[in-house]
Amino acid sequence: MTLIYKRPEIITDEPFTYCPGCSHGIIHRLVAESIEELGIQEKTIGVSSIGCSVRCWKFLNIDFVQGAHGRGLAVATGIKRAQPDNIVFTYQGDGDLLAIGMGETIHAAARGENITVIFANNAFFGATGGQLAPTTLIGQKTSTYPLGREASIIGKPIKISEMLAPLETTTYIARAALNNPSNIKKAKKYIKNAFQMQVEGEKGFFMVELLCACPSNLKKSPVDSLKWVEENMIPYYPLGEFKTINKGNL
Predict the structure, then answer these.
(1) CB atoms near residue 145 (< 10 Å)
(2) Which of 78, 109, 170, 197 has a CB 3.0–4.6 Å from the CB of 202, allowing a cystine?
(3) The whole model's pTM is what?
(4) What digits encode the pLDDT tens for the residues 69-87?
């Protein structure tokens, strides 16, 4: 019998504790596959954030360091500078990366820190009850803005990929969605690119933004949550590679 697919060995036997339909499990698989295919498990160090993504250290059999809320990129900077031969990445949500951690994100990118960022954008503060996040869409209802986000009060959602791509110190910036098999396949390509460029010694900052479903806070079924991502998030957050430099043979 021909083996078509198997679970990546980097994924632990720990049962996933994410809500049904949550996209974090998909991201874990794509990260694990990329690390495994590149053969870098023993030299990779992950930095987990605060939020739903804090749990990733339980599910990926690699070295992890826990960062304080919003400080994942500061922690990762210290690790990469102290251990430059290791592959360092952060796994962060939108609240962690763009709310309390916005300063860390902008300055790490501006310094060109040689770190791969895996950014899960589900348009909420997911772990703490669905509060408004910097990525919440106009009109989107949250626990803190039950009538929907108003641009005149809160401003417009932040498009961090578009913000970071023009910087001279960023090397690879891409955005994918996890709403269907075709887009998941592209997400895998982008994630692997972002790791491989670090492996091959490319200098600069690498980030992959992933549009995710959060059924619990959307109060929708998993299927309807994916439809919501397609109909609402993708039109505002266009997909693709925003910047790629010196990719070599990728």
Answers:
(1) 16
(2) 197
(3) 0.93
(4) 888 999 999 999 999 999 9
